Amino acid sequence: MRIILTTCLTIGAVLIALISCQNEVDIKTAQYAVNGQKVYITHCQNCHGEQGEGLGNLYPPLTDSKFLEANRQKLACMIKYGTSGELEVAGKKFNNSMPASNLSAVDIAYVLTYINTKINKGKEIYPLDEVEKQLKTCQ
User: Is CATH 3.40.50.2300 correct for 24-136?
Assistant: First the structure.
């Protein structure tokens, strides 16, 4: 019994040490990604798939990091106000519209961070101030 208690205490101490070593950016990214996953499941997953794989020729995948990088300055507007017209994603053309969402700026920042860090294995957060700035310039 004493060995089990000692082992548990040691593991707990190691976990606390690891958590305390994380910097503020890592913690914020994790917070955004966790909240973003909830937003994604509720608002995006039905069309874009559980892993962002898309749905055949109907809805584009969210796994094309080149598309996401090239359109970074438009993504918040695309989510907030929807899209129409042809898009080329991952070498395929899609011509279905995406409806506008009622997501807040913070929810958009969360879901973009989730898409970037979890679906695309990136490291970059989409900060709230960047999303708010984009939303002011939507056309």
Answer: no
